[in-house]
Amino acid sequence: MPIIYLFSMLFHVPSSGFTNSAMIGIFTGVAFFNVVFVLRIPSLELVHVADGMTWAFLLFPHFALSNGLSNLNTLNTFIPLCNTLCNWPSEECCMPQLPDQCCVQGYFDFTDPGIGRDLVYMAVVGVIMFGILLIKETRVLEGVFYRGKKVIEAPIPETEEESGLLDSDVQAEKNRIREMTLADIENHNLILKDMTKYYGKFLAVNQLCVGVDAGSCFGLLGVNGAGKTSTFKMLTGDEMISRGEAWVRGISIKSDMKSVHQIIGYCPQFDALLDDLTGRETLYIFCLLRGISTQRMKGLSEQLAVELNFMQHIDKKVKEYSGGNKRKLSTAVSLIGNPSVVYLDEPTTGMDPGAKRHLWNIVCKQRDSGKSIILTSHSMEECEALCSRLAIMVNGEFKCLGSTQHLKNKFFSFYNFFLNFN
Is 159 within a domain? Predict the structure, then answer.
């Protein structure tokens, strides 16, 4: 199981993962076994080669299983024969005129055809792979790598802050965040302080500073490639922060992401849903992961489905959902567990205008309940309807920051009128 779990991470389509894992299992379990079986034919005089290959191939559990079953069948055949031919211990019964199988001490002997080494190899490989899986899932090595590696990224180029061209509101927010004490940080639901992300030597996010209070919605507006999704990946722990720091309710994202996960919700840009589960089953799974009692799961799931207007589809499989209904389900998942901070990465993609308006009302309701909503969008209309403050991102940096009305007053001091005359 651990090997299949690790192998599945190489694929994004379930059918491809299943097919490839099955083929590898057949190849290592059947092809390798047949090679060894043929080499053991006495007339070929290659038994020593077969023995060496057996020890190497035992690293593959499918081969170890095939080899063990074959040896077990051999022992079941020869042990009654040996008992008939020999009335004394097997050590004395190992005569040239008798088969080698009569020399085996028992089923669990480590010499061929005993199955002892097959069982030990399968157990050891299973434990090792389970350990690798735990390391992979807990991201221990990634954290050690980031803490221990030298800074090899290209130096941050001269910023608009250093050149004096940075917008005054963005500069004021940077100064406010940098001067915050620990008590100030704990009084905000979300704080980003000079948060930076490199992919190799490519600078994707550059020294973001912002603070988000409870009961507010902060919007990130920008085109594709501006750095919005990279910012979300750092805030949710999918990517490590290269430089800077971030806190959720005073808890450091860099040092205690496990605690942060308990108080955030996330609706990703691309729906992270299992196609063969129903909407109800999906909500139940995430309720269990959030620690919701089984007595409350049904009521909470149906409440979210009603609020987000997909109750009529809740018992359909996810693969039968439209794009808009998948976004509704993903949004519902992000709200399970009453998180303090909710990240919504373009939640209205694929929705019709009526569904968008309905979702906006739900987001406003969640915001007014005291949650902090972090929203990314391409739509200025959406940000204007939902956001207390917003920032426009270009090339990983904030170019302007403030309420929608403030930005209108600052940058839109004129109007364009288009008149058509017949």
Answer: no
